[in-house]
Specification:
By secondary structure, this protein is α+β, with helices and mostly antiparallel strands. The chain has helices at residues 6-19, 21-53, 56-99, 113-123, 126-171, 177-198, 207-226, 230-243, 246-270, 278-283, 329-339, 350-368, and strands spanning 315-317, 321-326, 369-373, 376-377, 384-387, 394-400, 408-420, 423-434. The strands form two sheets. A five-stranded mixed β-sheet has the order 1-8-7-3-4. A three-stranded antiparallel β-sheet has the order 2-6-5, with no helix packed on it.
Length: 436
């Protein structure tokens, strides 16, 4: 014992640490479950802020960013919950093996001898079964972190490219942000394609390939793609890939993604990410023949972001109608492009110009929104700037007096200058009115 080398002592210590890693896994997993379940709420806050403050060209890129981020969040939630359950089962198996170390009792009178032997062949003793569960937990723990880090890395790269594309667009406005972004993303994908080609059996053993394949193509591009997460991602995935056949690893990864898709879709839809897509934002509530709850304040959830014109309720009695017209940045940009911007009056001071610019902006908003009540054009006497109490969304508040309302069903039609493929965005808000 006294002659043990430092290397053997270190190896023994590491093996002991491996055996006891379950306790750290269980603690981390329990804390991670709580933390990961808060992530959808944080994601929604990020999405809502983006929807209120960014233009369409930025939002189209952020749509990709939020998609990858949602995958990372979903993976963490599902894997940590599954890991916690399996690791808890494993702890139970250890306790049970201390009471019944032989596991299945082949001398039991409750089943036939043949039945018990088959049971023993399938499951072995408790300790061997516990060992298999332990291995599954360890693999799942590493795998969940690895995949989540991959999606988070890709999301951060998308966000960084969006920022660079925006900066280049400011210097070279003739190129759109999306064009610049796609060009940079395509360049970033080239090393991956080259790496795949060089890894073909006909090429990978050639001397010139060995000089550039790993050090120049794979390692360099991976450092860019995965940045500070490069080492854990690369090492964990390399361990999986080199211990599994490539086909099995690829199919396993695809199968896992398909498995989590239902939960992903729930998180994705609840976070409002879909509104980042211009087509969805344009047409999400534009049918005249359908009742949309998003048009009524009393149907809103707390802090729900308002993306459509809205009135207090679908049923009202003896009062006029408050109509809120949201104007997120994506639509404010359209308004400014169509009607220009207020020109400062040199004969007025700053305070006076500010008052006049606000009044001017409201007049443009009256032209930007075309409103009809029961088929008749309605021009609000005045529009007031308003931040809605539900999600602090900026827009305009108009008032429709009860003298213009019909007893029974009424219909408000709103059309804005926001366009998609040449068509203007429109909303239909039916409601029932009765006098007191």
């Amino acid at each position: 014992m006294d002659n043990l080398s430092p290397d053997s002592n270190q190896q023994s210590w590491f093996e002991q640490l491996e055996k006891e890693s379950w306790s750290a896994e269980l603690i981390i997993s329990g804390a991670a479950i709580y933390g990961s379940l808060q992530l959808p709420w944080l994601l929604t806050k990020m999405v809502n802020y983006s929807l209120l403050n960014f233009s369409d060209d930025i939002l189209e890129i952020l749509y990709l960013f939020f998609t990858y981020l949602t995958f990372a969040i979903t993976i963490l939630m599902i894997n940590f919950i599954l890991h916690f359950i399996l690791r808890s089962i494993w702890v139970g198996l250890l306790g049970l093996s201390s009471v019944y170390p032989q596991g299945v009792n082949e001398e039991s009178e409750n089943y036939s001898k043949h039945y018990l032997q088959q049971l023993k062949v399938d499951f072995g003793d408790l300790r061997s079964y516990a060992a298999r569960v332990d291995q599954t937990c360890s693999i799942m723990f590493a795998f969940s972190f690895s995949v989540a880090m991959i999606f988070t890395s890709i999301a951060s790269i998308v966000l960084a490219l969006a920022g660079i594309a925006y900066g280049i667009h400011q210097l070279l406005p003739q190129f759109t942000i999306n064009t610049i972004f796609i060009a940079m993303l395509s360049i970033l994908m080239i090393p991956g394609v080259i790496g795949g080609i060089l890894n073909a059996k006909k090429l990978r053993d050639k001397a010139w390939v060995q000089k550039i394949h790993y050090p120049l193509v794979v390692k360099s591009s991976s450092r860019i793609m995965f940045h500070f997460l490069y080492q854990p991602i690369f090492y964990i995935n390399s361990t999986f890939i080199t211990n599994l056949k490539k086909r099995a690893y690829t199919l396993g990864m695809l199968g896992y993604i398909l498995l989590i898709l239902p939960i992903f879709m729930v998180v994705f839809l609840q976070s409002n990410v879909m509104y980042s897509n211009q087509r969805y934002y344009f047409s999400n509530a534009d049918r005249e023949d359908r009742f949309y709850s998003v048009h009524y304040e009393d149907n809103l959830k707390t802090d729900q972001l308002i993306q459509n014109p809205i009135i207090p309720s679908s049923e009202m009695m003896g009062v006029g109608v408050k109509l809120f017209l949201p104007l997120p940045t994506r639509e404010e940009i359209v308004l400014n492009k169509k009607y220009g911007e207020y020109k400062m009056d040199s004969t007025l001071n700053d305070s006076q110009n500010l008052i006049k610019s606000r009044a001017w902006f409201k007049e443009q908003a009256k032209k930007y929104f075309h409103i009809e009540l029961n088929g008749q054009k309605f021009v609000p006497e005045r529009l007031r700037s308003y931040n809605h109490y539900n999600a602090n969304e900026y827009g305009f508040l108009a008032y429709i007096p009860d003298s213009l309302l019909l007893s029974g069903e009424n219909l408000i039609y709103i059309q804005s200058e926001y366009r998609y493929k040449g068509k203007k965005r429109q909303s239909f808000i039916p409601f029932w009115y009765s006098a007191k």
